[in-house]
Structures
1.
Amino acid sequence: MAEISVYMISGVQMRLILAEDDRLFGGAVQKSLGRMGYAVDWVSNGASYCEAIACNNYDFAVLDLCLPDKSGELLLRHTRSVLPRLPIIVVSASSEVHKRVDVLRDGADDFLVKPLDLDELKARISCVLRRVPEDKYEDASAEHGPLRLFAQRFCASLHGRDVKLTQREFWLLDVLVRKRHKVVSRSEIQDALYAWGEEVESNAVEVYVHHLRNKLSPGLIHTIRGVGYQLASSLENARPLLS
């Protein structure tokens, strides 16, 4: 799995999905964008790409047309059907005009031909992001009763009162809200908080859960011993402790 960093634009942490089977090129893109602070999840086949976009919230996709198991055109159309507002740059070794036209008609926001310059890729990503409406980020990204999450400000609103969260506090709460009808395992939470392969402190999840309870409500998150954590089924009586 890929490494995850942090990139901010207009106050939003940008998390990207990179679908690329060329290990040399994929590693170079991930490392280059990571140095800028982008959060980059790198997958090398279509099946992993589909799983990633189904399980994670992405702000951008860089999609190679020539993946080993699924055609990039099919993946592009699938992405557009499930994530119609996700900005997408397609990269391909093909420079044929009809290919570029077809891809743009299928919903890509831009098309780059390999071999490509990494500085140009970064510039194209920034250019596409400038065209993304601000309200894409200001809408509540997830909610549960009186609890609403706002990715732009890393903020939770409980009964109308805003509570500022750190990035990892926000990510943890976002996972619990989106999976509120199930118990979320410790490993699932770690996957959401840390880079794939990044070293995780043994008590990191417990620390962030403790912070969220202190900031929002002691009964916000239930610990299911030996299994994981689950958001309280009702927050009607919860009141933010910090603002």
Note: Confidence is low (pLDDT under 50) at residues 1-12, 135-139.
2.
Amino acid sequence: MTITSVAAYLRGLEFFSDVVERVSLNDWQRPSPCEGWRALDVLGHVGEATSMGPAILRGEPTQMAWPDPPGEGVEGDPAQWWRSLMEPARQAVSEADLDAVVDSPMGPRSVRDGLAFPAVDLFIHAWDLACSIGIAHNVEIPDDIVDFSYHLTDSIPEDVLRNPGIFGPAVPPPPEATRSQALLAWMGRDPLC
């Protein structure tokens, strides 16, 4: 059975949170696998997208004027800042009309469809955080999310998918790569970071 975008998104919030809770205050300045970003910038990027979600789900206008680097938008304790965004996002999903068509950064789409890319982003960026603090070998993206991710990206043209700010060029997976590692390599990460 294929996972829904809603279930993937809600699981992604938890998956990302699990890694955030493992990052110490001293580790937020470590470099991430996202070129030019620190672990704090990965958190800022995911947090800004997550905070925009409830407005999109309610059909409210949104702006994509995010701080550069994204970590500049993180206020106070990073883990606490993330926690303050998670519950409103979860609540907005539970109250949303999943068939409603809303404006999103990708154009008009149903709420259900609009949750798919942010769901994948949560899993990939959780791994990025894990890589930043040296625990990537302990973070495996579940098989159903791997399948969901490939299914989602199959419909995106290669030139859009490999555009800066989305995913980098695919890298060869290591021999005997897990499914999680193969997905990460396909999304431009070195899964053995």
Note: The first strand starts at residue 101 and ends at 102.
3.
Amino acid sequence: MPRFVGRLGAADAISATNAALGFVAVVVAPTAPAVAARIVLLAAVADGLDGVVARRYGGSRPGPYLDSLADVSSFGVAPAAIAVSVTSRRWPLWEGSPMAYAAVAVPALFVAMAVVRLALYTAYDTREDVTEGVPSTLAATIIAAAVLAGVGTPAVVLGATAVFCYLMVSTVEYPDLLHVDALLMGVVNVLAVLLPTFQGAMFPYAILFLALAYLLFGPWFYWRDVDGDDGEPTPPCEAPAADAEGKRS
């Protein structure tokens, strides 16, 4: 065991923590979906932090794989469990209605598409500053923030989960967040976790607004200045290739 652990770095420890948070969210979701939503938002903070640490101190060879495996837990299985918990209260499975079956089938498909998306990302998505398809982190954040803000009704959660099943494996290109914007999202995430009911759920609403804005407008209005020297934003299709070990989802 030490021989393998010695090959891991600080970023990998954060990724492993991310995976553990996903498990805790799954356990909590059936009885307390709002608490599970807070844990998912905390996992999103850890997911951003491991990338920062990897860039600052260097990543490991298993890093991209460990990161994607952790994301399956926190941003695949955990939000699906939250969706089942919310929707089953409206359409319990024991009723045997079509909506009750859909309340389980759609989150199951969400998990499958998240796994596919993360596998494709790890294998092929090596371009710097851009990714293809909606990140699973973004999908999970929107579902969790909606539940935490109190607007995640069963119909809304089930519909959003179904839409993300397609968007995660779509060909729409999303620029990565600038560091300052990622930091802002991280701070608001932490505040939503710590103070979910402050001023009428102000912070969960803020996360939901920011995440939806990026989801809807990011591919068209959030070009990044990759070159950094001419002031002209570089479209994602022109972004240079990146080292697979240095880019974490």
Note: The radius of gyration is 18 Å.
